[in-house]
Design brief:
By secondary structure, this protein is mostly helical. It has a two-stranded antiparallel ribbon with strand order 1-2. It starts with a helix and ends with a helix.
Length: about 190
Amino acid sequence: MDAIIAVLEMIRKGQKQEAVEVLEKNCKHKRIKYEKRKMSCYEKLRLFIRDGFIDRYSGKRLLFPNALRIISLELGTAFPFHPNWKMSDCHVAYWYLSPTYDHVIPIARGGKDIDSNIVTTSQMMNSAKSNFLIEEIGFFLYPPGSFEEWDGMISWYKGYIRDNPQALSCRSLATWHVALKKYEKEIGEI
């Protein structure tokens, strides 16, 4: 903070070169070049199951994405969904209860794009955290949950689809359904 205040004073006095030197000595910006991967639904599902459908920043339970989508399919405008999560057009429960993933140490801050640096969280907590370190904003990293204790309503979802197979004509349901079937083929039925 002191260096920034000194830099501001130097700028006011027209001492731009001195200001640059103070910045480079005390708080030089380190640009990080990175390519962030885009995880498939299957990779995300493996993560969500690994973390027991628990928001690792809040400790709260999250839901298998298709469980929420079924509410929207069944109840329509009472529980609206927007494919891009537009807050004005999407029920806020999607932001609080749908799982997503986050890099604990953001890639933009030097974190690695590896499994041990990636956790399950809600869209709301992910947005709040942004590119901050958890200690900078008072977040805590909760331990993963137990999938055996909380399956994110996957068992409920499977029963619903067994009784309502026509729901899979919805593209977003089909995408997550394929990921679940791939997981079960690899690991065994849930």
